[in-house]
Design goal:
single chain, mainly alpha, 5 helices, two-stranded antiparallel ribbon, 123 residues, Arc Repressor Mutant, subunit A
């Protein structure tokens, strides 16, 4: 059973203003939605948490910590880098990844929630 919206009066000014408001923030919404979509993956969220906590890490370290292959870790890092959430810096033969400064506003509240989460045990 589908319900439909029946309105007596449409507030044309409100609708027009809301359309303008959405147009103004459309790019920001798209960027945030993509960041949240990527960070919504459990592995990538763990990686972001570790990168935030440690400042920088190489794929080998993340591989050892998360128990995954380096190629699998690298694929996740590529997605995060392509979205502008992480950046890389090559030192000698090693590539180190860190949280991109431009993504701090998006990621900091999410990562703080993880850090502040209290683990409860069921007895």
């Amino acid at each position: 059973m589908t319900k439909s919206c029946i309105r007596v009066y449409a507030d044309v000014e409100q609708i027009s203003q809301c359309k303008q408001d959405i147009e103004k923030v459309d790019a920001a919404i798209s960027k945030l939605a993509k960041a949240l979509d990527l960070a919504g993956n459990e592995v990538r969220l763990k990686m972001l948490f570790l990168l935030d906590k440690e400042s920088k890490m190489c794929p080998c370290d993340l591989s050892d910590i998360l128990g995954m292959t380096v190629p699998a870790i690298s694929q996740h890092l590529k997605k995060l880098k392509d979205a502008g959430l992480v950046e890389s810096n090559k030192v000698g033969q090693t590539i180190f990844y860190s949280i991109a400064k431009s993504s701090n506003l998006i990621l900091n509240p999410i990562l703080k929630l993880i850090e502040n989460e209290k683990v409860t045990t069921h007895e």
